[in-house]
Amino acid sequence: MKLKFFIPLLLGIMFSTTDAKAQDVAIKTNLLYDATATVNIGVEVGIAPKWTLDISGNLNAWNIDEDTKWRHWLAQPEARYWFCDRFSRHFLGFHALGGQFNIGGVKNNINFLGTDFSALTDQRYQGWSVGAGIAYGYAFILGKHWNLELEVGVGYAYANYDIFSCAGCGRNIGAGDHHYVGPTKAAINLVYVF
């Protein structure tokens, strides 16, 4: 799904609730993404007494420096079941994810759950990814309209990509795919509840 289709979808979900009232709609930002200079926004809409639909998206459309690329966009829709009232305390989330990436020149020697991220040091990977998972979260009520939400999720993701010999050059040296099982979501959300 291209970014130009994601934004109208997000706006459609936001405004499809015709009887929006207190604690039916929230808007949020993930502070973890903010810390990496990734623009992000999330919208959550109440769809039943204990259920909400959350959709978040993020975009990083610039290079870190001449030798390092960290470009991507990602959308994560999620259905949430709240054990108490919507937008307060414990919840379980069932999420999907999808996006595109162009990453390379990231110096590291990380090997995590069968994924060798150290290959990003000397090569660039450009492709797409999809997946799904389950998450647990907790929302702290900070005030009448403000919440702080913590969430962590695990699941599966599939990535398909082309490999390039360096971060800045365009010489394609191969292609591949990867199956990943592990963390698929981490969030510290600052939330405004309408």
Itemize the secondary structure elements and their pairings:
Blueprint: H1 3-15, E1 25-30, H2 31-35, E2 39-48, E3 51-60, E4 63-65, E5 68-82, E6 89-104, E7 111-112, E8 115-116, E9 124-141, E10 146-164, E11 172-193
Antiparallel strand pairs: 1-2, 1-11, 2-3, 3-5, 4-5, 5-6, 6-9, 7-8, 9-10, 10-11
Written account of the structure:
The protein has 194 residues and is mainly β. The protein is built from 2 helices and 11 strands. The strands form 2 sheets. It has an 8-stranded antiparallel barrel with strand order 1-2-3-5-6-9-10-11. Mean pLDDT is 88; it is low at 17-22. Strand 9 and strand 10 form a beta hairpin. The longest helix has 13 residues, at 3-15.
Could you list some keywords that capture this structure?
single chain, 194 residues, 8-stranded antiparallel barrel, two-stranded antiparallel sheet
Write a compact overview of the structure shown:
The protein has 194 residues and is mostly beta strands.
